[in-house]
Amino acid sequence: MIKDYIKIIRPLNDVMIGFSVIVGSFIASGRQLPNLYSLLFGFLTGFFISASSMVFNDIMDIEIDKINNPNRPLPSGKIKIRNAYTMFYLFSIIGLLFSALTGIITFIIAIISYFIAYFYNKFGKKSGFLGNIMVAYSMGVPILYGAAMISKLNFNIMVYWLMIFLSGIAREVTKGIADVEGDRKAGIKTIAVIMGEKKAAIIAFIFYAIAILLSPIPVILGKVYPLIYSIPIAIVDMVFLSVSIITIIKPTKQISTKNKNISLLAMFLGLLGFLISTKP
């Protein structure tokens, strides 16, 4: 039973969001981190707001998941809906409280991001591509949040955010291929539903390709150690290319589900690359 409560918050996603806050602070400051309390509060803000969004997503998706993912905790009945709502409210409050401890600007960013996630889960998901954009924003905003914690939002940070944002759109479009059957029945206008799985896979490839084209910019700007940066980022770029091409060749639920999970791990490797290669 405990594993179902862990599963519903998608801890890998939550840890990556929290870790992204730390990465944002680190690269914006030139390898100089704020105090330990700020880092901890920033990580926990990202973790708990992400967790609340994941729970609320499953609450809103319970009928769709009875078709697409019947083994998930809510559609399978392993977690009761009232317990899921309790988790959502609790994690929301905890996340926003921690954000208030990191400063007014970061609190505002957290509030905006929280309501974007809420609006997406409540209303935006059925819009399809607009919903993909909302999710991709949420994936990239922790980098901006981390930089804002130390008042150093700059062009370099925006490049990193844009790479995450574009690859996040690609991943969400790919996810739409995996969920096309349930989304079609639920009236969710994803690219896969409107244009078909093959064209959706091609569009995902385009967004991955643009993100890849941006990846040399930190080297060109002299913000990173070229060799240390290039090795992990080259691996990430190759993963993005390969999963998108494979999905184009075979845009099935099984392949797209596998590839969207692989791309998430690649994004985590990309964050590590940003972290270890940043110059003082």
TrEMBL record:
InterPro entries referenced in this protein's UniProt entry, alphabetically: Prenyltransferase_related, UbiA_prenyltransferase, UbiA_sf
Any one annotated GO CC term: plasma membrane
Membrane topology qualifier: Multi-pass membrane protein
Cell compartments where the protein resides: Cell membrane
Chief place of localization: membrane
Keyword terms, alphabetized: Membrane, Transferase, Transmembrane, Transmembrane helix
UniProt keyword Zinc-finger, yes or no: no
GO molecular function: transferase activity, transferring alkyl or aryl (other than methyl) groups
Pfam families: UbiA
Listed transmembrane segments: 12-30, 36-56, 88-117, 129-148, 200-221, 227-249, 261-278
Record-given protein name: 4-hydroxybenzoate polyprenyltransferase-like prenyltransferase
Native species: Caldisphaera lagunensis (strain DSM 15908 / JCM 11604 / ANMR 0165 / IC-154)
